[in-house]
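User:
Care to share a sequence and structure tokens?

Assistant:
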Amino acid sequence: MNKSDLKLDWCSYQAAKYATEKWHYSGNMPVGKLNHIGVWEKGAFIGGVVFGYGNNQYQGHKFNITQDSVCELLRVSLREHCTSVTRIISVCINLLKRKNPGLRLIVSYADPEHGHIGGIYQGGNWTYCGRGGSGVAYYDETGKRLHSRVVGKGGMKSHFGKMTRSHDSDTVESRPLMKKHKYLYPLDDAMRKQIEPLRKPYPKRGGSDLSDTPGVHPGEGGSIPTPPLQVS
């Protein structure tokens, strides 16, 4: 496929939500301040990529930067496609940098619970720094899995500095959860030097598979009109 057949641009929240609910294994759109980028191949809408703050409101502290200087790659939601996911992410990062010149670091996770080791990040030379994220999964009385942001000690949870009511962690079922593979992508030389000591060998699995992604589901594409551009 020619490079001219691929298009990435800012898209509406509705378009990114459509892609996430249809083609990402989580089936849900993250909350908070987001940047969403649409992906088209040969004029057909094939998915979206979403960046945001993520669940860790202290993400920047460990790198001695403000929360506005770091973001998380939260969703890569694509139908069947021709372009490599690594290339799509690379173009998204360039768009993100231009829109957010103060951004210094991107964090992302690959979930082994869904068979991912982060091959799409390895292909882009991201820095692997081991396992991170929550080690517990929570379930309500019906067996439905609860997101960690709605479960807290005593029925309260801090989200972006604000205490909100949640499920009480002492009254819901908890099960051990495999910790996620954590990857970092620095956006300037100083940050690159700072995180380089954290680099660890990439995790591997049988064969040479660099194609795993945080949620690529087959399905029909191009079924929604080209969304309006949005930069909020």
Remarks:
- The longest strand covers residues 44-52.
- Residues 119 and 212 are 6 Å apart (CA to CA).
- The helical segments are 13-23, 85-99, 119-122, 189-195.
- The chain has two domains: 1-134+178-232, 136-176.
